[in-house]
Task: structure prediction
Amino acid sequence: MMVNFKTINNENNITRTGGIMSDHRPIQQLPDARKHQIISFIKSGIRIIGYVLIPFNLVAAAGILIISEAVGIIEELV
Result:
């Protein structure tokens, strides 16, 4: 009779490497998709403004595009 890993794992509570699984694993927090989407839209709006400013004021455009990158970092942390 063939027994697959899933059956062995469920019966003995053993990992693939042979260690015993802990029942006290921390619950992983899922990201908030709505907040991520809102910040993404804000970042896109900031980028559009930055690209529109390029022909008129290169320094201001560069500053705004740098700000949009900072917003992108915040977006990934939400």
In short: The chain has three helices and no strands.
